[in-house]
Amino acid sequence: DAKTTQPPSMDCAEGRAANLPCNHSTISGNEYVYWYRQIHSQGPQYIIHGLKNNETNEMASLIITEDRKSSTLILPHATLRDTAVYYCIVRGRDFGNEKLTFGTGTRLTIIP
Amino acid sequence: ETGVTQTPRHLVMGMTNKKSLKCEQHLGHNAMYWYKQSAKKPLELMFVYSLEERVENNSVPSRFSPECPNSSHLFLHLHTLQPEDSALYLCASSQDRDGGRDTQYFGPGTRLTVL
Question: At CB < 8 Å, which residues of chain B contact A?
Fold first, then answer.
């Protein structure tokens, strides 16, 4: 059973910021929020992860609410190559609790 | 990205064939995983190896046989498969530390079709 809820699909104009929401209201204190994306028929690509602080890397930013019950992945300047299914995943890093459970994700389409 | 490579990328086999999928990671990790992704289904974890020892086997049929000869290589040997085994098979790797397992990085997958 997925621990996260995401909208099934979103569109974003090329060059604009894409904001992908995720709800994880049952997250526990030692669980991280991970984001992966999967372009059609390819392996999932790691994007970013966080515990409670906001995080930024060369691909994206992750904003986690103070109560940790939801988060937003931000792609600051979306390009056509960002069209993919984006998965928000909650996982622990303890042995036995590190399983990645992919839900249905959000299909993001970047519009030219 | 060449951190985790998988060969072949595509494989078509009959139900009586024997074939093997290969995965190699160039990230210096010590844990490797096999996942199965069927059409319109979430990823399913099949096997986990840590330091070349199998640490998890999620009730996978015996027609799938994994092998991990060293921390950089992982194989999935296939025999007597069924058409419903057709799927994208993904390999991943991560670093096991005392505090748990770090981020998993995936290969491009092998698209398997069983006729």
Answer: 1, 4, 6, 42-43, 45, 55, 88, 90, 92, 94, 96, 99-109, 111
